[in-house]
Amino acid sequence: MAGNTSTPGATVVSRALALLSAFDTAHRHLTLSDMARRADLPTPTAYRLAGELVRGGMLVRRPSGEYVIGRRLWDLGLLAPLQSGLREIASPFLNDLHAATLATVHLAVRDRTQALYVDRLSGRASVPVVSTAGSRLPLHATGVGKVLLAHAPERMQEQVLGDLSRMTPYTITQRSLLCGQLARVRRDGYAITEEEMTLGACSVAVPVHRSAAGGEVVAAIGVVVPTLKRHRPRLVAALQVAAQGIGRSLEELR
């Protein structure tokens, strides 16, 4: 639920936000009744607000009657300083990485307890990938997510470690095992997954620091490949070169 927005005193803005917040990675298509229920709004109120959001381009109503997030909302989200500036700075390095590896390349930031995918370049290999630019995936089951989780505040780590959902038979759901992996991420400077988010897909990722000399981790970049058995060192090296370039460019803007 998005909150107790049906109580007296809730503003129109708060109700509209609750309606938009009804959508998440597990609920990309919602009927009006589902939106109203998840937003804790009366159905007539949800219907009126949904109509206004559709006219404003924030929602799209499909012929089936279901609602989805509109392009206008995504366009506005890209204007956020972190996403827009980081995406623009990282773009040439991601393209170089894509050309060098021919793999699917990801740029992600932490959005509370999820990995928000700011950019994605599709690889040539036939590897199942569930991410899209703008999507959110679990921190504990993705390469970029593990990097971001390893460098997250302790309070946030505890929140994620308390709810380790299983995505595939290989997802790490044991707290002690994941904690050991996070310690190795901080020690070795990279994270891996092996079919933990999607069967047939492995990933390796590294942190992006705010400067070339290190400091705060502001993002993670990663690649998705069919296997890591032979090419892990080469992929890690390519990722680290790209990450250092992004960090250097971020430092120059300060």
Question: Could you walk me through the main structural features you see in this protein, from its secondary elements to its overall organization?
Answer:
With 254 residues, the chain is α+β, with helices and mostly antiparallel strands. It has two domains: 12-76, Arc Repressor Mutant, subunit A, CATH 1.10.10; 79-253, 2-Layer Sandwich (Beta-Lactamase). 43% of the residues lie in helices and 20% in strands. It has nine helices and eight strands. It has helices spanning 12-20, 32-39, 43-55, 71-77, 81-101, 143-150, 154-161, 175-188, 232-253, and strands at residues 59-61, 67-69, 104-111, 114-121, 136-138, 191-194, 202-211, 214-225. A six-stranded antiparallel beta sheet has the order 5-4-3-8-7-6, with helices on both faces. It has a two-stranded antiparallel ribbon with strand order 1-2. Strand 7 (202-211) and strand 8 (214-225) form a beta hairpin. The termini are far apart. GO terms for molecular function: DNA binding; DNA-binding transcription factor activity. Residues 10-71 form the HTH iclR-type domain. It comes from Terrabacter sp. (strain DBF63). InterPro entries: GAF-like_dom_sf, HTH_MetabolicPath_Reg, Tscrpt_reg_IclR_C, Tscrpt_reg_IclR_N, WH-like_DNA-bd_sf, WH_DNA-bd_sf. This is Regulatory protein.
